[in-house]
Amino acid sequence: xxxxxxxxxxxxxxxxxxxxxxxxxxxxxxxxxxxxxxxxxxxxxxxxxxxxxxxxxxxxxxxxxxxxxxxxxxxxxxxxxxxxxxxxxxxxxxxxxxxxxxxxxxxxxxxxxxxxxxxxxxxxxxxxxxxxxxxxxxxxxxxxxxxxxxxxxxxxxxxxxxxxxxxxxxxxxxxxxxxxxxxxxxxxxxxxxxxxxxxxxxxxxxxxxxxxxxxxxxxxxxxxxxxxxxxxxxxxxxxxxxxxxxxxxxxxxxxxxxxxxxxxxxxxxxxxxxxxxxxxxxxxxxxxxxxxxxxxxxxxxxxxxxxxxxxxxxxxxxxxxxxxxxxxxxxxxxxxxxxxxxxxxxxxxxxxxxxxxxxxxxxxxxxxxxxxxxxxxxxxxxxxxxxxxxxxxxxxxxxxxxxxxxxxxxxxxxxxxxxxxxxxxxxxxxxxxxxxxxxxxxxxxxxxxxxxxxxxxxxxxxxxxxxxxxxxxxxxxxxxxxxxxxxxxxxxxxxxxxxxxxxxxxxxxxxxxxxxxxxxxxxxxxxxxxxxxxxxxxxxxxxxxxxxxxxxxxxxxxxxxxxxxxxxxxxxxxxxxxxxxxxxxxxxxxxxxxxxxxxxxxxxxxxxxxxxxxxxxxxxxxxxxxxxxxxxxxxxxxxxxxxxxxxx
Length: 648
Hints:
Layout: E1 3-7, H1 24-34, E2 39-43, H2 46-53, E3 60-64, E4 67-69, H3 71-79, E5 86-90, E6 100-104, E7 107-112, E8 120-128, H4 133-144, H5 152-162, E9 167-171, E10 177-179, H6 183-194, H7 198-205, H8 213-218, H9 223-232, H10 237-257, H11 260-287, H12 292-319, H13 325-354, H14 366-380, H15 385-393, H16 397-410, H17 413-442, H18 452-456, H19 460-464, H20 473-492, H21 502-509, H22 528-546, H23 551-573, H24 587-600, H25 604-639
Parallel strand pairs: 1-2, 1-3, 5-9
Antiparallel strand pairs: 3-8, 4-10, 5-8, 6-7, 6-8, 7-9
Helix pairs in contact: 2-4, 4-5, 9-11, 10-11, 10-12, 11-16, 12-13, 12-17, 12-23, 13-17, 13-22, 13-23, 14-17, 16-17, 20-21, 20-22, 21-22, 21-24, 22-23, 22-24, 23-25, 24-25
């Protein structure tokens, strides 16, 4: 249930007649109903609004009565997936007591009528999530005590921002949204509305505003037509995601088969699969069918598809006579996963930094400050050569799939894997260096804002180890990587008697557990999860190599580990709770100890199969519990009246 509140106080334009014969305030209420609001209420003062908000538990929409907009704008605000609390932001100047807005990375970080460095103006409408309703009521009461200058909805939003409520900005593109103060302004706004085809604009809006070079020019130029066709036949985003998975699997099989016709066909299917991968998101935005399940599935499917393609390339390279085909595939998957872990946590770091004041001594100074200013300048210069170079050099998904398709079609799977590894390594080095410098300048303790134990993926052993104070958790995690890395190197060099080196490598790896209970508040501690992933993966690979396990089996075990870890990052990005069976996954330390014991016993292959199967079953059961069983129970519980029961 969604309640829309039209706040008429301070908006004289609310009573102006529109072209449809209704007053502007009445028409806005009708538009909110068409946009999906279940109930619409008009209130005349902030105290009344606060009392009304006190009675509801579901998300609330609040808008002034001076807003002239396409209904699609209101629908997009109501269904925005970026966060629970979202505000409409326009590019108009903050005149007439309206609230200026300064935003960073899509978050409103400051708001007020006299904001000197405003990047936009509050559009007079916001959606407030259920958890933020107490703050909305408090803001309404606080704003009621302020001088009544300008529309009440602006004073309300400024007060809500002052309370520190995390609010995301919803910008208007292609469609029209204006705030009016008189009949002339209303007439001009309605004329602008009539000049825009709402459906065509919505279809164009389904494409991301800023995407990567390959996606922008070789996919999004025609994928909206596929999106429109999918919507017409009733195909949902999840169905499109499943189709993209099938295309990727077929491409992987053809890469494994080998032969020029199969490789070229596989390259074409890989490209088409990526088009469908873009279409599922475009379809969700076009139809406004967003869900936590869909977002999680899209993230997980993207990674699973890519790594299945690596498996096909590894098998194909091996079948073509290259001895280390699977080794290249394992390396590509490990590199890409560790890269993604740093990407995820750097994004969290940047978002957190955007809503925190920087230390005065470091603001705008030093190499970190200069890099930050340069990056901001490049990002603002949309479409320039430097803009596209910056977006391409980091080797995003579109460029990865394009490189694989071209390399396979023109050469072979071995060349494709080598190309992915070379570009991926260079991109990792480039982004890692720049982000490290910028992170030291921002100095934001990201892991202190979340459950560090969960996202470190600590098990029972790490939680019981003492804390080593002189060394930070990142230093310990980096040291831990060295043991498995050394074991893997000597194993690849063909040294003898390495089975008894496994305990030493395991002990070095477990050093990371000494930082489990420490505060993760260093400027670079956002790198800890990625370092722990690298250590665990390298140890598993090394144990497999030492134990003579088949390379495809090692790949399969690491693939299962990546599913587990991507589940954690996907839930972090989608603001979901921890997996229901997370404790049963034993943690990086527990899994490594068990695998190490099988390596010492000389049964590494059995260990990889047994532990990998167990983790895969635990992952599947956790998915069913999280997305099927628990939601069904919650729905049944909500359907039972308080104090009531079910009669037999």
